Amino acid sequence: MTRTRGINHVALVCRDMKQTVDFYTRVLEMPLFKTVQLPDGGQHFFFDCGGGASVAFFWWKDAPPAAPGIASVEHFPMKPKTAIGSMNHLAFDVEQDQLEAMLARLKDAGVPHTPVVVNHDDSPQGVAAEMHEGVFVRSVYFTDPNGIMMEFASTTKEFGPDDIAHEPASLETA
């Protein structure tokens, strides 16, 4: 059986490569490890986000403008929907004991972010005010200079058969 080994990289499009390099290297502390000048005048840069994975950005002078609420999240958590085929957000895996430090780093850098660590659980609201046994991921959400929603996520439990409790939805049966 052939299986993938994880994510190699996610490729996104940025508005300003210089600003993107500053944010990812200085604020998120992700080393820039490869730059490519494209034949059409664009650029393609790669950042090490840990665990053998990377985040890559394309930049073109004539790229189409951002389309919040269509191709990116308009306002989280009030308007989290994005269009079919878009990337909703990118989650970076971090240790649970690092979440508060990551939140402080974002605050110190003036980066828009959720005001607290979000505890995701299976309650009707999907989140809990306090950490408890049913919390499966703890997160901090923020946006990069391009308006791309990002997440620092820490898985808090092992998943098992009971975690698959819903039938997949379809437009044909909705």
From TrEMBL:
The record's section on CDD domains has: VOC (cd06587)
Q: Which domain of life is it from?
A: Bacteria
* Name assigned to this protein: VOC family protein
Domain (VOC): residue spans on this chain: 6-155
Q: Which PANTHER family match?
A: GLYOXALASE FAMILY PROTEIN (PTHR21366), METALLOTHIOL TRANSFERASE FOSB (PTHR21366:SF31)
The cross-references to InterPro entries, in alphabetical order and at most eight, read: Glyas_Bleomycin-R_OHBP_Dase (IPR029068), Glyas_Fos-R_dOase_dom (IPR004360), GlyoxalaseI/FosfomycinResist (IPR050383), VOC_core (IPR037523)
Q: Name one Pfam family in it.
A: Glyoxalase
